[in-house]
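Q: I'm building a small set of examples for a reading group on sequence design. Run inverse folding on the following structure and report the sequence directly after it, with nothing in between.
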């Protein structure tokens, strides 16, 4: 279990010291308060994972503290300590929401067990809450046997076995989140996989979503909130469309990666986290860095291993397999027999450019299942734009330089190389990563050659 911040509340300094030494030996971060009022002040200013409080104290006692915490919507777990003669008060505390109680005098092993149990219970509650939100989204599965996909599978296996951050690059609809989930599932990390789309959340709310906040941090913050980074500790956080994250938050994310801790919005203290970050974008990474959409220092932190997800037009051999997979999926969901694909339909699917990639193919197959009343999907079940698609926009075949021209080998090679680059850019809709894959070179090499040959990109 990663280090947690625990608040000890007891009017006896000696007892606070004994508990502090024991909890620090367990690896936790400890704060102290001599009464309920002081404890409440601490909880309001910084994130606390657990409160360990005596029941009988001058001023605001443990019962009053617990009541105020619940009244103000602070769901921090509380363990109460009580003398044998006041066990009825302990029962009252449990009714108010205390997670456990310890009868004094006690052995330190009893305290350690209660603390470990309470923190584990809190982690399970957070996980269950998160998984309830995730369960409807499904986990999906890879479908594809093409050479491009086999290379992707191997790269996922290699990356998953390390602690390195990864950057996933690919067009919209290629399955970048699926790749990120696969990396997490194969990693052996015990925490959650927590996805967050940086482009889908308003900038003014993204900081709270990432790092959490304490009650009263801003208008509408009626209770403490655990951020996605804290939730993903010991697991993986997936930052989709990272290039849409505001610059000020990129700075804070960089600090989290450097220092291994987060600071909730409105809090004074920090919370240690053990994060593995997988990021993704459908933008050209080099251009994003050059334009300032992605900080260069953050880029180097995140882009330890780059994973390029092939577009559907780069893995046409998988189209029939994917189409039948989606037909079966949606037919079963609708309680219908699984239809087959007419050969003309398959020809159209394999000739299409697929600007929306796998996501577009699934939508078209779902539409076909809804419209189909027979046993076969025909052209009548496809969208008009796919049936009457224009000729492929791919560049014309590359030919050698005229034999009667210059015999200078260097000039001939450069001319052919330039044509190949232009052809690859045309076929990949000017996507540099995809063009580099078609050419069999690295994206860095491609950028160098674009500059050398002054090819407009």
């Amino acid at each position: 279990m990663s280090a947690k911040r625990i608040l000890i509340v007891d009017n006896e300094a000696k007892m606070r010291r004994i508990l502090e030494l024991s909890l620090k030996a367990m690896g936790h971060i400890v704060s102290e308060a001599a009464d309920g009022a002081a404890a409440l002040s601490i909880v309001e200013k910084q994130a606390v994972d657990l409160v360990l409080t005596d029941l009988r104290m001058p001023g605001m006692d443990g019962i009053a503290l617990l009541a105020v915490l619940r009244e103000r919507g602070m769901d921090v777990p509380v363990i109460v300590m009580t003398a044998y003669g006041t066990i009825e008060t302990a029962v009252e505390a449990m009714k108010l929401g205390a997670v456990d109680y310890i009868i004094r005098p006690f052995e330190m092993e009893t305290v350690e067990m209660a603390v470990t149990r309470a923190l584990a219970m809190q982690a399970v509650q957070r996980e269950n809450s998160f998984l309830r939100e995730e369960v409807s989204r499904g986990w999906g599965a890879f479908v594809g046997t093409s050479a491009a996909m086999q290379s992707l599978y191997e790269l996922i296996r290699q990356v998953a076995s390390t602690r390195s951050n990864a950057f996933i690059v690919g067009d919209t609809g290629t399955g970048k989140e699926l790749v990120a989930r696969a990396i997490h599932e194969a990693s052996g990390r015990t925490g959650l996989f927590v996805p967050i789309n940086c482009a889908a959340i308003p900038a003014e709310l993204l900081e709270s979503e990432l790092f959490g906040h304490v009650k009263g941090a801003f208008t509408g913050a009626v209770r403490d909130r655990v951020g996605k980074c804290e939730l993903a500790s010991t697991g993986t956080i997936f930052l989709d469309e990272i290039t849409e994250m505001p610059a000020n938050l990129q700075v804070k994310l960089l600090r989290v990666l450097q220092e291994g801790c987060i600071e909730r919005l409105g809090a004074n203290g920090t919370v240690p986290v053990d994060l593995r970050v997988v990021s993704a974008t459908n933008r050209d990474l080099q251009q994003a860095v050059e334009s300032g959409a992605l900080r260069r220092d953050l880029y180097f932190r995140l882009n330890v291993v780059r994973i390029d997800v092939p577009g559907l037009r780069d893995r046409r051999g998988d189209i029939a397999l994917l189409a039948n997979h989606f037909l079966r999926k949606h037919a079963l969901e609708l309680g219908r027999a699984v239809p087959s694909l007419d050969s003309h339909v398959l020809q159209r699917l394999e000739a299409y450019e697929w600007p929306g990639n796998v996501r577009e193919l699934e939508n078209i197959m779902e539409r076909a299942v809804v419209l189909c009343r027979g046993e076969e999907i025909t052209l009548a079940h496809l969208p008009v734009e796919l049936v009457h698609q224009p000729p492929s926009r791919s560049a014309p075949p590359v030919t050698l330089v005229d034999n009667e021209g210059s015999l200078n080998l260097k000039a001939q090679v450069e001319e052919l190389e330039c044509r190949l680059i232009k052809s690859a850019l045309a076929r990949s809709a000017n996507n540099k990563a995809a063009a580099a894959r078609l050419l069999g070179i690295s994206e860095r090499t491609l950028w160098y050659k674009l500059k050398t040959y002054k090819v407009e990109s």
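Residues 100 and 146 are 56 Å apart (CA to CA).
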